[in-house]
Amino acid sequence: MKITIRTRTLKTGGRSIYLDFYEKGKRWNEYLNLFLVPDDAPDARRLNEAAMAKANEIKSKRMLGIDGDETEADNGNLKQLPKRILADWLDSHTEGIRRNPSYSPATYRNYRSCVNIIKEYLKYRRRPRFLMSKIDKKFIVGLLDFMKNTYKNTKSSGNPKGLSLHTLHLHQSTLVRMLNAAAKEGVMDRNPFYALGRHERFAKQQSERDYLTKEELLALAEAPTTNETTKRAFLFCCFTGLRYSDVSTLVWRDIKQVDSGLVVSICAMRKTGKQVTIPLNQSALKWLPDRNGCKPGQKVFDITCLSACDRCLKKMAAAAGIEKNVSFHTSRHAFAVLALAAGGDLYTVGKLLGHTDIHSTQVYADVVMETKIGAVSRISEFFSDQSIK
After folding, report:
1. CB within 10 Å: which end of the chain, N or C, has fewer?
2. How far is CA 231 from CA 213, 241, 316, 334, 370, in A?
């Protein structure tokens, strides 16, 4: 990283001193609240030499990654705040999330992922010991820009890639919740995120949920496959609404006989922690493998990792002539849409899916409504050239 001391002329005739940072094609500035007075001002030489000496001292600290909060403008609120290092507080906060039983494992993973990105940003800015009290609008804007334009997910399959708009909004929401918690704890005086304008934030993306129609589902059932277990597990989920995380850990004791027939009973879904009981209709039972004396604790579907399952399903979809982007999660969308189209009410379908919010189920109802509107429109088109007397 290259750090240069620069000045900017002010209307008063003096000059403001700032640091110019440059690394890997990225440039940013840090104003130091230090000033050079005009040469004809009283005692100008002594004052300017002292200001430049201070600027060089700060520059040296930045080269070493030291925050040096004493260089910031005086602020009575900041001086009263505890000096908490951001990275340390983030670790402590996420550990609290992990230990809190009211948070699901998926929520903890989201927090952990967001924290890792923030740490990468601190590393990128050479500010590993950045203080909580120094987080301001400028810091937030820089972090969001880093997420969108610089950060790459090195764990993604194939080449490292940037974050999707959906993931960016998810991490932004997590960041806001963490900053709210910090302000509530008293390590920050306020959450500076709310100072951002709408154009400076990541907008929430309208999720596009590919689902399978009845005809596509039948075509996929007839399609050849390279992995019969993956096919069976996927189609079983199309008629139960289970996620990959739940069906991949499903054991035979989870399938129980009740008065009304067989059901899948899961004590706690992996993502939400909610308990669900799903009746098994004949279509679902068709795709259950033979138990063949398996013990209650043995898995029902011994399937591979999610990425391998998705690759298998994409090949099946291509063989079936389905042009949609089919993944394992498509089965869940298919179940929701088919259940609502068959006359299921939002509340019941939401319970079967394990939704904690009815608005999550409403998305599928909107899809069903679009289908109904399309059907009515086609009726209108049929009679458009007919004269009805």
Report:
1. C
2. 17, 15, 9, 15, 29
Whether residue 271 lies in the annotated active site: yes
Q: Tell me, yes or no, if 243 is annotated catalytic.
A: yes
Is residue 79 flagged as an active site residue?
Answer: no
Query: Is residue 355 among the annotated active site residues?
Result: yes
Residue range 40-77, pLDDT digits in tens: 888 888 889 999 999 998 888 887 766 554 444 444 44
Q: Are 322 and 220 in contact (CB under 8 A)?
A: yes
Please identify which of the residues 84, 243, 270, 333 carries the catalytic annotation: 243
Under 8 Å between Cβ of 110 and 55: no
Task: 23-26: list long-range contacts, CB under 8 Å, 24+ apart.
Answer: 23/124, 26/150
CA dist 213 and 208 (Å) reads 15
> What percent of the chain is modeled with pLDDT above 90?
40
Q: Which of 209, 271, 274, 314 is catalytic?
A: 271
Q: How far apart are the C-alpha atoms of 26 and 38, rounded to whole Å?
A: 32
Mean pLDDT of the chain: 83
Nearest 10 degrees: CA dihedral of 266, 268, 274, 277? 10
Length of the chain: 389
Give the tokens for residue 307.
Answer: 């990425």
CB atoms within 10 A of CB 164: 11
Which of 364, 372, 378, 389 is an active site residue?
A: 364
Please give the C-alpha separations between residue 54 and each of 17, 21, 184, in angstroms, as whole numbers.
10, 17, 35
**Poorest-pLDDT segment among 85-89, 175-179, 311-315, 353-357:** 353-357
Q: Do 334 and 351 meet the contact criterion of CB atoms below 8 Å apart?
A: no
Q: How far apart are the first and last CA of the chain?
A: 81
Please state whether 13 falls in left (phi above 0), alpha (psi between -120 and 50) or beta.
left
Catalytic residue among 355, 359, 372, 389: 355
Residue 169 catalytic?
A: no
